[in-house]
Design brief:
Largest sheet: 5 strands, mixed
Shape: globular
Number of helices: 10
Length: 254
């Protein structure tokens, strides 16, 4: 991979967590199988070392090509860890709201629905990577909230988790939002500049206030209303019963 454009100050992720412990069909999701996190590309060397020593064998990078070009893969690039770039939003400049709009929880829920319906093939690939990688898989975007939250939701749906537990996992990011924005501020500013986006910095203040559960509740509710089976867009894109069974075999801790 090419050298990243930015000279980054390495820092520990502020929204990294193991999904182990969540109730799924047949038991509990075991630890050290799936890890969700904010941008791991500029994690410290110590964090990278600890992840690999803990069994990390694959990374799913959900960022757009422009974001990857800015920060690269980071310290994990030195290890024999499989790397998969599956951009769920190919052109992030298109998701930047126009002046005066800003981001809302309802707006994010609509974006999640668009991702599931329009990027289902990438989501299926992500679930296959988790199902068949020999060790643990980490998946991330920039904040570890939105694109990462969609992958976590699809995985947990495939494993039979209830909507309430999926929403609860998603909402855990709320306490980290201030730290996430502080960590990502210089990178996001550089990204908009590199993309030639001339609008002011997006107003994300609404995302710091309560009620972020609304976004995930909206996604799950809309999927059920539109499709009956919330995984139907993924099944149509190639999610097989064999992959779902493999996920269960790897995930269930009775």
């Amino acid at each position: 991979m090419s050298t990243p454009i930015l000279d980054l100050e390495l820092s520990a992720p502020v929204n990294l967590r193991d999904l182990g412990g969540i109730k799924i069909a047949g038991g509990t999701l075991r630890k050290n199988l799936v890890i969700r996190t904010d941008d791991i590309a500029y994690a410290t060397q110590e964090i990278a070392d600890n992840l690999v020593e803990g069994g990390l064998s694959a990374v799913i990078d959900l960022r757009s090509p422009a974001e990857v070009a800015l920060t690269g893969r980071g310290p994990l690039a030195q290890f024999p860890v499989a790397y998969h770039n599956l951009p769920l939003i190919n052109d992030v400049s298109r998701s930047n709201p126009q002046e005066g709009e800003g981001f809302t929880h309802a707006g994010m829920g609509q974006m999640y629905l668009d991702i599931v319906e329009n990027s289902a093939a990438h989501l299926v690939t992500a679930l296959n990577i988790i199902a068949y990688s020999p060790g643990a898989t980490a998946f991330h975007c920039a904040a570890g909230r939105d694109r990462t939250g969609v992958v976590a939701a699809m995985l947990l749906l495939a494993l039979g988790a209830c909507d309430e537990d999926i929403v609860a996992d998603y909402a855990l990011t709320g306490a980290n939002m201030d730290a996430i924005m502080e960590r990502n501020r210089p990178i996001m500013g550089a990204m908009w500049k590199a993309l030639g986006v001339e609008v002011p910095q997006p107003d994300t203040s609404a995302l710091l206030r309560g009620g972020m559960e609304e976004s995930m509740e909206m996604l799950l509710g809309e999927l059920r209303e539109r499709h009956g089976d919330p995984l139907l867009p993924l099944r149509k894109a190639g999610l097989s019963e064999a992959t779902v069974q493999r996920l269960h075999q790897r995930a269930v801790e009775a």
